[in-house]
TrEMBL record, chains A, B, C:
Residues 1-21 are annotated as: Disordered. CDD domains: YjgF_YER057c_UK114_family (cd00448). It comes from Streptomyces varsoviensis. The lineage of its organism: Bacteria, Bacillati, Actinomycetota, Actinomycetes, Kitasatosporales. It comes from the Bacteria. This is Endoribonuclease L-PSP. Pfam families: Ribonuc_L-PSP (PF01042). Residues 1-17 have a biased composition (Low complexity).
Length: 136, 136, 136
């Protein structure tokens, strides 16, 4: 019997409903869909870090990473990343940002699998990412 | 070697292709995408419980829960819920229904992670949800 | 401690960014989103096998299967398939192709769970599929 633990980094905005930014149970860690919201400020509504794909993608990576670390994991443990974009025209730029980010992170092991699809997101948001990690 | 077992509650409509409403193998239980179809009636095509988001969301939760229970799990075991809506304008109402439902269910442990995106669904359907659970 | 291993069949086109077509860690194997690209030809850009849903669906299945096999798994180990279509009108035909394919594959055990949603995909692509497998 392993405990299920909610992962809620202090920097993260309060979820808009009763779910967790991340959950860990045994060696499985699931990161909820993250967007480019900047760190939470008490009394302020969640706000995207900026209007551009670059700003939002980098902030989204930071938000995913914070949840992984709070749950005792790292990028190396990630098995799957789901990338939701709003515009097919953003694919090439997202890949450039993605590659530069993970190179800078010094990711040594085999990268995760990934699926990218194009969906609707709330107004002002250009990217959402969730992730499944297996630890140990 | 653990057996993979299909989970097919008697109340559920027959899937439109050779897949299962749920599958369990070892301590992992995957719930297929559920929609607001009312319990199956022999000889009748699958029919949504009603046209409103509230009706369909509550029936979808009931359909997910039946699969969890048939597979020996409960909401407490759910790690991730993927919510597919057709309209960004439905987000706030879905969250209200979601919160009230899980409060009524008396969910005690840390809630699951969640991702919500906006996609196309077959005509008449406003919401689809799938879930990943880890037991034990 | 189990190693995370990237799965990259020789027949597959190079991913458009630093991710893997599949990843295995312990008994979990994640297949990245596959589309109907024909086997890689050095110096040529990834090309869909044909314009029709049938051609692309069968090639996508072949691409998923190659990753499963390279990772030591088979269709019997698949827990979940996520099917992304671009057009609700393709659902019935995809199900026919899906059923005929898995009948021909001689799938004996309980089939996987499945979620199908309708999203945007890059121009020329009609279907994308990813899969989660649990081995052993």
């Amino acid at each position: 019997m392993s405990d299920k633990t909610a992962i809620t980094p202090a920097t993260h905005t309060t979820p808009p409903a009763k779910f967790s930014h991340g959950v860990r149970k045994g060696n499985i860690l699931q990161v909820a869909g993250q967007v480019g919201f900047k760190p939470a400020v008490e009394g302020e509504a969640p706000t995207p870090v900026g209007p551009t794909l670059r700003e939002q993608t980098l902030q989204t990576f930071a938000n995913v990473k914070a949840i992984l670390e709070e749950g005792g994991a790292s990028w190396d443990d990630v098995m799957m990343m789901r990338v939701y974009l709003t515009d097919v025209a953003h694919f090439a730029e997202m890949n450039e940002i993605y590659n530069a980010y993970f190179e800078a992170e010094g990711l040594k092991e085999a990268p995760a699998a990934r699926t990218t699809v194009y969906v609707g997101l709330p107004p002002g948001l250009l990217i959402e990412i969730d992730a499944l990690a297996v630890l140990g």
